[in-house]
Design goal:
The chain has eight helices and 13 strands. With 251 residues, it is α+β, with helices and mostly antiparallel strands. It has two domains: 123 residues, no CATH class; 71 residues, no CATH class. The mean pLDDT is 87.
């Protein structure tokens, strides 16, 4: 991971040149990331990803977004990363890059509030993200699509990773049940999507869970969880780091 050196050239516009001169000594916080959870194995011509800080305008658009159907996360990444098409991102990489956008924009320390599940006290909490979000990369031999043996049917199925543009198809349990066939390339060599859809409806739960697990590969990427201990009642619980709009704000 490296920092970019800021290079400023004359534009011929006096105002722009004056503005460039004003900010010429400011630090360039852009970073280039060459190591991501997927190792870039599944992107064309991957050479690294450039991560740029959020601007004030970007932050305000996130905080003031009123369109419930707008994918704020994808819009944010489109403005802050270069080197890979956001719609093609795997979930494991998308989560990791969001952490990096947060780091390069506001620093490694994240302050937020947690309500204790036991005593309901609201606790001010501070985490150093880099210490809680260790990355696990995929093995070199992992492929996409890839074959998996179904434990009950004892046959091979071929599955693939969802891409960022397809996440809405797996947003909840109902959507997963309706759309899982889209991520199964073949079952026992049969690639007909109608056959695959009907076969999935007849499968044992163990086979379905095996396919869902293989599609998500949740063991890779970052695990956004931490151990919370309440200072008021000493209750201890593993909790997810909140990643709502406040994650991309210093307020």
């Amino acid at each position: 991971m490296t920092k970019n050196k800021k290079i400023i050239e004359k534009t011929g516009d006096p105002r722009e040149d004056a503005l460039n001169d004003l900010f010429s000594e400011s630090a360039d916080d852009t970073m280039v990331i060459t190591e991501i959870p997927s190792k870039g194995k599944f992107y064309s011509d991957f050479k690294g990803i450039e991560v740029k800080p959020l601007t004030f305008v970007d932050e305000q658009k996130i905080l003031n977004a009123k369109d419930a159907n707008l994918d704020i996360v994808s819009k944010l990444l489109e403005k802050t990363i270069d080197g890979v098409v956001v719609d093609e991102l795997l979930s494991m990489d998308k989560m990791y890059l969001l952490m990096k956008v947060r780091e390069v924009s506001y620093g490694d320390l994240y302050d937020f509030k947690v309500t204790c599940p036991a005593c309901s006290t609201e606790i001010n909490t501070s985490l150093k993200l880099s210490e809680h979000l260790n990355m696990t990369q995929v093995p070199d031999d992992l492929e996409d699509p890839r074959k998996v043996t179904l434990p009950r049917l004892k046959v091979e199925a071929e599955v693939r990773f969802p891409r960022s543009r397809e996440e809405i198809l797996l947003s909840d349990t109902d959507e997963i049940h309706k759309n899982i066939y889209r991520f199964v390339v073949s079952i026992k060599g049969n690639r007909d999507p109608v056959f695959i859809s009907k076969a999935l409806k007849r499968m044992h739960i163990q086979d379905i869970k095996k396919i869902v697990s293989e599609i998500s590969k949740s063991e890779y990427g970052v695990n956004p969880r931490f151990i919370f201990q309440c200072p008021e009642c000493s209750h201890e619980e593993t909790m997810a780091i909140p990643m709502d709009v406040s994650f991309f704000s210093v307020s």
